[in-house]
Write a structure and sequence with these properties.
- There is one protein chain.
- By secondary structure, the chain is an alpha/beta fold.
- It folds into 2 domains: about 1-180, no CATH class; about 190-354, Nucleotidyltransferase, domain 5 (2-Layer Sandwich), CATH 3.30.420.
- It is built from 14 helices and 10 strands.
- The strands form 3 sheets. It has a 6-stranded mixed β-sheet with strand order 5-10-9-6-7-8, sandwiched between helices.
Length: about 350
């Protein structure tokens, strides 16, 4: 419990002030006072002769002022528009200072030049991002209050809408469907006990648009020669319209799998790499190299991106196989369809997609 100056004692949870009517007027006034103090720094640095440049001033605005406006906007963003508009002059004044514009310059044009959306749209964007992330975890305590809300018919016209009602129309506008959401969960294995995969992305150092394909082909053959004593596995994912598939090719077999139509190409590439782990688990070999042309998938694996359930499963299976004596290396290779193996993979994916 904290007391704000000039107000009665009000609960303050994670810097968000709650009044007994949940109008958030004290919080908005408190937030405005904090932002005005940070705005004084921009006034000092925005001197026309010796002040900072526009880019530096905009960085300061986003880090010192906009961050305060963003924090907790999912909570207080359901307030009435007339109260929330109390915060608009802060951004308007900051943009004028950062761009060195006249006072009479239209704020909407300055926001476009500064690449800053109005606070109303920014609060709506952050609320949608929060709800979309929340929809992936059914075990989150806030899930039921947003997606299984029981207050739709009980709300009075004068009451502020809860978050569930506040974003329901926006979720429908972006085509949100709970059936298309991929469930995520907290990793069951502690990240620091997992084995970090060996990922080789040396081919990515060259720009494909400025480098002849023959050079990539030559480097690829060199990479294959380096791993001539390894069991080679090639993985790929394809998407044609709404049809998605993944394929795995190795010397003993080749297999393609059709994925749900709503799956992304990123998920298809990860699924193909995960199928390569199944091949390694059944094989009696000890040394393996898996080639993939998906740089984003390899970066997610190398960066321990636990937001993806497929990355979680890969890291867990990789750790088990590594402890069992399997030596696994992931190698990035460019998407060169003139290689025979990639032609085969493309054909496999094509027949699955048809």
């Amino acid at each position: 419990m904290f007391a704000l100056r000039g107000t009665a004692c009000m609960p303050k949870v994670l810097s968000n002030v709650f009044d007994h009517k949940l109008s958030f007027i004290p919080h908005i006034k408190h937030l405005k006072d904090k932002c005005i103090k940070a705005l004084n720094l921009l006034r000092v640095l925005a001197h026309t002769s010796w002040g900072a440049d526009q880019e530096t001033l905009l960085h300061l605005y986003r880090s010192l002022i906009r961050s305060k406006l963003d924090y907790g906007c999912i909570v207080y963003g359901s307030d009435r528009g007339c109260y929330l508009r109390m915060l608009d002059p802060i951004q308007n004044h900051a943009v004028h200072l950062c761009l060195g514009a006249y006072r009479t310059s239209p704020t909407s044009s300055l926001c476009v030049e500064a690449n800053e959306s109005p606070l109303y749209f920014r609060r709506k964007k952050l609320s949608l991002q929060y709800c979309l992330k929340l929809s992936c975890n059914y075990n989150n305590p806030a899930y039921a209050t947003v997606f299984n809300s029981k207050f739709h018919s009980e709300r009075k016209p004068t009451q502020l809408p809860p978050l569930a009602m506040h974003v329901s129309g926006d979720l429908q506008a972006v085509g949100f469907k709970k059936s298309d959401v991929i469930t995520s969960s907290i990793p069951s294995s502690l990240p620091w006990i997992l084995t970090r995969p060996v990922v080789n992305v040396t081919l990515h150092c060259s720009d494909k648009s400025n480098t002849p394909p023959e050079i990539f082909k030559h480097r690829f053959y060199e990479r294959c020669h380096d791993f001539k004593n390894y069991y080679c596995i090639f993985t790929d994912g394809s998407k044609e319209g709404n049809r998605v598939a993944a394929a795995v090719v190795h010397r003993d077999n080749s297999k393609g799998v059709r994925l749900p139509d709503t799956a992304s190409i990123f998920r298809a590439e990860l699924y193909a790499i995960l199928r390569a782990i199944d091949v390694i688990r059944r094989s009696k070999e000890k040394n393996f190299v898996s080639f993939s042309d998906s740089m984003s998938s390899l970066q997610s694996i190398n960066g321990f991106n636990h937001d993806s359930d497929l990355v979680q499963k890969f890291l867990k299976d990789y750790t088990i196989l590594a402890k069992n004596g399997k030596n696994i290396i992931l190698v990035e290779c460019v998407d060169l369809k003139d290689f025979n193996v990639f032609i085969l993979m493309f054909v496999i994916c094509f027949f699955i997609l048809v």
